[in-house]
Amino acid sequence: MATETLVRRNPARSGARPAKQAIGLRTRMRRNWQLYAMLALPLIWLALFAYWPMYGAIIAFKDYNVVDGILGSRWVGLKYFERFAESYQFWRLIKNTLILQAYELFATFWPPILLALGLNMARRRWYRRSVQLITYAPHFISTVVVVGLIVVIVDPNTGVLNQFLGLFGAGPIDVLNNPDYFRHLFVWSSSWQTMGFSAIIYLAALTSVSPELHEAAIVDGASRLRRVWHIDLPAIRPVAVILLILNIGSIMTSGFEKVLLLQNTLNLQASEVIDTYVYKLGFASQVPQFSYAAAIGLFRSVIGLVLLVLANTIARRFARSSLW
User: Fold this and answer.
1) pLDDT digits (tens, 9 = 90+) for 166-199
2) How many CB atoms lie within 10 A of CB 97?
3) Residue 193 · residue 186 · CB < 8 Å
């Protein structure tokens, strides 16, 4: 009895470790205040520019005017959603947006993977660094500059493209004013601009592959392509699936700035997407239609959310990788 009492009073003799006391949130914040201070600015930015603007989305359900304000404007329910669904622009905007974004998703998904695999297999360091520098650089060029380069290159009179075609006797092609060329011009220029920077993520995933796996595969007589197929691709598959899900979720949101800068009255048939239409309704028209533009934008966001959830569900079931 006395021994049991002694063990209870002195748990160190019995070999039992005392439980670690939980540290409160206030204590953790006081000890690591530098980290919380660094976190404060991104959180403030997120609250001001991502969550607070959601309050203004209610104008999609109101007949908004500047004099009465958001709360004082008359409530009209789904009036503007029905108006957009019955508009002759509805299916044309949906088709242009989906085709352009699906095309861009295809053209920008696999080139970074191929580039990362090629750089990972490159043996000469100077060659790998040179290719990385050349392919990463376009990412840091602004959209306005990229569009300016495109306009200069495809100019029907002085552009490099038409001068090159002239060497083979081909006539000048007015690429910018032809709706048949708009999607190809937009998509492949975006692929060129983002390919190198997107490959960084896949290169980071390839660094987690153990060299022993490749050494064992070489001993077994596996070729380079076999090692890429059975070792490297499975290593980057979870990352590729996550990026694909995120891209599918934003498939209804096209590159607004680039589309608007490349757009003109002659290629409007293929270049008019939801983003540019909302901009014209809300800001570029003589009589701004804020509620109608907000309803179309909210409709686009809901469709994007549905596609994101659907893509995540399919990926979780078949690829065993998902966002949640």
Assistant:
1) 888 777 888 888 899 999 999 999 999 999 888 9
2) 23
3) no
One-letter amino acid identity for 301?
A: S
How far is residue 290 from each of residues 21, 62, 92, 173, 281, measured CA to CA in Å?
Answer: 56, 10, 21, 39, 7
**CB-based contacts of 102: which residues, under 8 Å, 6+ apart?**
251
Per-residue pLDDT tens digits for 256-270? 889 999 998 888 899
**Quick one: tokens of 53?**
């603007």
CA atoms in the 13 A half-sphere facing the CB of 233: 9
- Identify whether the C-beta of residue 119 lies closer than 8 Å to the C-beta of residue 236: no
Query: For the chain, how big is the Rg over CA atoms in Å?
Result: 28
Distance CA 225, CA 215 (A): 14
DSSP 178-231: -HHHHHHHHHHHHHHHHHHHHHHHHHHHHTTS-HHHHHHHHHTT--HHHHIIII
Tokens found for residue 161:
């493209």
Mean pLDDT computed over every residue of the chain = 85
Dihedral sign (CA 142, 286, 275, 148): negative
Residues 6+ apart with CB under 8 A from 27: none
The pLDDT, as a whole number, for residue 294 is 92
Residue 21's pLDDT is what?
Answer: 55
How many separate helices (H) and strands (E) can be counted in the chain? 17, 2
Sign of CA dihedral 214, 215, 218, 219: negative
Structure-token match 């920077």, residue found? 197
For helices 179-206 and 233-249, give the axis angle rounded to 10 degrees. Answer: 140
